[in-house]
Design brief:
The protein has helices at about 1-20, 25-30, 185-190, 270-280, 300-305, 330-340, 350-355, 365-375, and strands spanning about 50, 55-60, 65-70, 75-80, 80-85, 85-90, 105, 115, 125-130, 135, 150-155, 160, 175, 195-200, 205, 220, 225-230, 240-245, 250, 265, 285, 315, 315-320. It is an alpha/beta fold. The protein has an eight-stranded parallel sheet with strand order 9-11-13-14-16-18-20-21, covered by helices on one side. Strands 1, 2, 3, 5, 6 and 8 form a six-stranded mixed sheet that branches. Strand 5 (about 80-85) and strand 6 (about 85-90) form a beta hairpin. Helix 1 (about 1-20) crosses helix 2 and helix 6 (about 330-340) runs antiparallel to helix 8. The longest helix has 17 residues, at about 1-20. The radius of gyration is 28 Å and the shape is elongated.
């Protein structure tokens, strides 16, 4: 109450001093106190008539606080954990709708939900961090946030509905620790952004996590991720660059779509470099200043370093020789992977050669064994654990 008495006193003094000065003069007085206030651009339909430092709020039936709106000219908002001893747990629908002056907002980890259209039209907001307490971003939450350049998710499995970031900057950078949820939810992330930085508490990128991200152009995986599972980035047709850390020790053979413009960035003598070589992806070594901008792996170069005759020959067949050229190299691994994905068919001889684990049927298990053979994890084919 004392705060608002001071505000009203300052406003009154400002009006008396400037006489006929309009709203901008009043704003100057208020701004000298460290805040800028005015009538709200949007008064929430559910507003209970309660305010706190530039915010409208409601008290819910359960005795918790819902942020319901803000004053139009507020530039910075620090949502408190509590108001009058009650926990702030939600940001309501349209809460910051059309707050065009808002440039910065801090959301505490007491907040568990953010409503639809909550930040719609916040055209000056440039970045925001979503705490791990928030488990879902609703549809249209950040519509028309045209200046939003960076959004960081601190939570695990934060569900994001399709359209949550409609009409935002297409080059917005996402930083996430596992932003995927039910099937289809993560697609809204990848289809709304071109740059993605991924952390992961579980140490892996799950199967299908960012599948069909048609606008995704650049991905950075942070240190600590060890595995990229099947179809994690499948059908990301415009993905041009992925940075893979040293910690990655496994990439499933269908993690990426072949025949794309993807270039892999990583470190020499790591699994990322071997994977790029095996599947023909261009590779740039981040720890080698002499490395040219893009080094394209060709079949000729890989056959010089990959064993070609080490697989045992039985009955005129060469185990692992899928293309029937008499040797075993990366080309055979690519063909076997394509066969396993249903992209091609093999004749009977090639199928017999594809039985790298000796179980009598060519399949994904054989593809894994063949890759292990090519990177010297196993020494002979066929091989069964």
């Amino acid at each position: 109450m004392k705060f608002w008495k001071k505000v009203l006193a300052s406003v009154t003094a400002g009006v008396l001093c400037v006489g006929g000065v309009g709203l901008s003069g009043v704003e100057s007085v208020l701004e000298s106190m460290g805040t800028v206030l005015s009538a709200s651009a949007y008064v929430p339909y559910s507003y209970d008539g309660i305010t706190y430092e530039g915010l409208y709020y409601n008290v819910t039936d359960t005795g918790e606080i819902e942020i319901a709106g803000c004053y139009e000219y507020v530039r910075k908002v620090n949502i408190p954990i509590e108001i009058d001893g009650k926990s702030v747990t939600s940001i309501g629908e349209y809460a910051f709708y059309n707050c065009t002056s808002l440039t910065e907002i801090t959301i505490p980890d007491s907040v568990t939900s953010i409503g639809q259209y909550a930040f719609w039209g916040c055209t000056s907001l440039t970045e925001i961090t979503i705490p791990d307490s928030v488990t879902r971003i609703e549809n249209h939450t950040f519509d028309d946030c045209t200046s939003l350049k960076s959004i960081t998710f601190l939570g695990s499995k934060t569900g994001i509905e399709e359209g949550a970031f409609s009409n935002c900057d297409p080059d917005m950078k996402f930083t996430t620790e596992d932003t995927y949820g039910q099937e289809g939810e993560v697609v809204s992330v990848a289809t709304n952004v071109t740059q993605l930085t991924v952390k992961h508490k579980e140490g892996k990128i799950p199967a299908g996590a960012y599948k069909d991200g048609k606008r995704l152009k650049e991905v950075t995986l942070e240190e600590g991720i060890t595995l990229i599972e099947d179809d994690a980035f499948a059908n990301c047709d415009n993905l041009e660059k992925i940075v893979i850390p040293k910690s990655v020790t496994g990439i499933h053979y269908t993690a990426f779509t072949y025949d794309t413009k993807l270039t892999m960035y990583g470190y020499k003598d790591t699994y990322a470099e071997r994977y790029a070589e095996m599947f023909g992806f261009p590779f740039v070594a981040l720890d080698d200043s002499d490395t040219p901008p893009v080094t394209t792996t060709t079949t000729t170069s890989t056959t010089e370093t990959t064993p070609t005759t080490a697989a045992p020959i039985t009955g005129g067949l060469v185990c692992g020789d899928i293309n029937l050229d008499g040797r075993v190299d990366i080309t055979d691994a690519v063909l076997l992977n394509k066969f396993c994905s249903g992209a091609i068919t093999l004749d009977d001889t090639a199928k017999k050669n594809a039985d790298c684990n000796g179980d009598g049927e060519p399949g994904s298990g054989d593809a894994v064994v063949l890759l292990q053979f090519l990177v010297h994890i196993v020494d002979t084919l066929p091989y069964s654990a």
